[in-house]
Design brief:
- This protein has one domain: Helix Hairpins (Orthogonal Bundle).
- Helices cover 79% and strands 9% of the residues.
- It has 2 helices and 2 strands.
- The longest helix is centred in the last third of the chain and has 47 residues, at 66-112.
- It is rod-shaped.
- The relative contact order is 0.17.
Length: 113
């Protein structure tokens, strides 16, 4: 079965959208891992019996205030959560467009049969 040029282009676009969605999924997974790490660090900082707190800057570990570290981690967590929300919106938009293109392609292929 020979597909029209228009249908082939739509299939190519659909593949591109699917690739973009997969890339966003990978970004989301990385950000989820960051949230998990931040939560773990915040829990460790919350344990008052754990002694001094340290922060890694480049290749150097330096002593730091627990309160300041907690504040920095909470701010970082907010930024990561905001990025996750942004990615979720992008994913939803791409899925909607991909579904619309898929319906068009299936309709055009259905006519050919």
């Amino acid at each position: 079965m020979e597909l029209s040029q228009n249908t082939q282009e739509k299939i190519k676009k659909l593949q591109e959208y699917e690739h973009k969605i997969q890339a966003l999924n990978l970004q989301r997974q990385r950000l989820d891992a960051q949230i998990s790490e931040i939560d773990s660090a915040l829990n460790a900082l919350g344990d008052k019996n754990s002694g001094e707190a340290y922060k890694i800057i480049g290749n150097v570990m330096v002593s730091a205030s627990r309160d300041k570290l907690q504040e920095e981690l909470k701010e970082k967590k907010k930024k990561v959560e905001l990025r996750i929300k942004s990615i979720e919106k992008q994913q939803e938009q791409l899925k909607q467009v991909a579904e619309a293109i898929q319906k068009e392609v299936l309709k055009q292929i259905g006519r050919k049969e």
